[in-house]
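Practice problem: Aminoglycoside phosphotransferase domain-containing protein
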Amino acid sequence: MTVEVPAEDAEWMVGQAGLSGVVSVQPLPGGWDNPNFRLDLDDGRSLVLKIWKAQKSLDDVQTVIQRHSWIDEHGVPTATPMMLDSGRRFAVRNGVAWTLLPYVPGGHLGSDRASLESLGATMARLHEVPETDCFPRDFRMGWSLFERMNELADESGERTEFLVALREGGRLRGQIPDDLPEGILHGDLFPDNVIGDGEVAAILDLEEAWVGPRAFDLVMAFVGFGWDGGWPVQERWDALVSGYESVRSLTDSERAALTTLHRYATLSIAAWRYWKHVMSEPDEALEDRYLEMVDRLEIELDFMGSFD
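Answer key — C-alpha cells:
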C-alpha cells in the first residue's frame, strides 16, 4: 500500500526537532514494512523520515532504536534516529511512531568487489559488538515464523505446495550445529538495507537483528547481494568472504555449515515474502515474489568449493 506524507505532516515532524522549512518530500526505495521519505529543507540539509507502520507497539520501536544506538556506539556505521525536543527519538502521529534520521548520501550499496569486501568487513565488526538485551535470540523470519505459518495453515486447511515444503524445511534445524560462534546479526542484509558507494556508509533497518550464528549473516548477505539473473556469482561470494576474513576468520565448523545456513537464509526470505504478500497482506502484484527464492532452493551450492 502506497503511503503519502502531506507537506504539513512533514513540517510538523521536523518541528519536533526544532527545525522548519520543508521544501520537498520524496519517497525512498525499499522499506517494505516501514516507508522512508527524504525531506529537503530550505537551509540545504536533508533528513529521512521513517514511519514505523509495522511495529506492534511503541516499545518495539524503542527497542529497534536502541539497537541502532548500541552498534553506533561500538563503531558500526548506521543511521540512528535524532533526539527530538521531547527528549525521545520518536514522535507519535495518528498512533504510529515517526523518526527523523540523518540522510546518508550514496544510494544502495552495489555488488562490485570493493563494495562487497567493505560489506564483509563491516559485518565482521558488527559480529564483534558485545551482546545486549535489545537483541533477541529469535530470528523473526526464521523458525518461529515457519511455525506460525504452519499453525495458521492447519487452522484454515490451506496446504499449498510451498507450505508443505516449508514444513519439511524444518528438518534443516537439526542440521545446524548448536555450537557455532554467535554474535549480533543484522539478519536482512539486502541492498536496500545498506547505503554506500564503493564502501559501506551505513547499515540500516535493524528490525530483524538478532543474536545467532555469525556465519548466518554472511550467507544472508550472499542471498541479498550474490545472485544475478537467477544464478549465484562466485566472485561476489569470494569478495564477501575476503572482506569478512580481513577482520575475523571463519572457523572450520562455520565453513562446514555454510551450505545449510544458506539454505535456511533462502527459505527464510521465501517464507517472509509468502507470509507478507500471500497470507498477511494479500497482493496480486507481489504474491509471486517468494518464487524467486523457491527457485534458488533448487540450485545446489557447495560453499566449501566452487559453485561451478
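Discussion: The longest strand covers residues 96-102. Students who identified this feature from the C-alpha cells alone can consider the problem solved.
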